[in-house]
């Protein structure tokens, strides 16, 4: 199964531009199909840790959430990513 740049960006919680940069740098193998890139989903399974490290603030928020403490005020974007990271941790 092949994924688009947008699908890969969403699954890794990074921008489309970052995915394209990684493709161009050879960090993510991809095939060009017309004007679009196709990225093998199996490759992402092998490279599940491609996203950037957590910011200090996000690491503290996740630490608080995991330990049951109230979390700091988050922007909608931070809340989205925090929920995504917590879901990934719960699935492990």
TrEMBL record:
InterPro entries per record: HTH_17, SinI_DNA-bd
Domain Helix-turn-helix: 2-46
One function term, GO molecular function aspect: DNA binding
Pfam families, A to Z: HTH_17
Domain of life, per lineage: Bacteria
Annotated protein name in UniProt: Helix-turn-helix domain-containing protein
């Amino acid at each position: 199964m092949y994924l688009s740049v947008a699908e890969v960006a969403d699954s890794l919680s990074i921008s489309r531009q970052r995915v394209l940069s990684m493709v161009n740098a050879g960090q993510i193998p991809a095939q060009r199909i017309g004007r679009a890139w196709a990225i093998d989903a199996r490759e992402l399974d092998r490279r599940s840790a491609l996203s950037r490290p957590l910011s200090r603030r996000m690491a503290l928020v996740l630490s608080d959430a995991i330990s049951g403490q109230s979390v700091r005020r988050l922007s909608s974007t931070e809340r989205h990513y925090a929920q995504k990271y917590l879901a990934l941790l719960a699935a492990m």
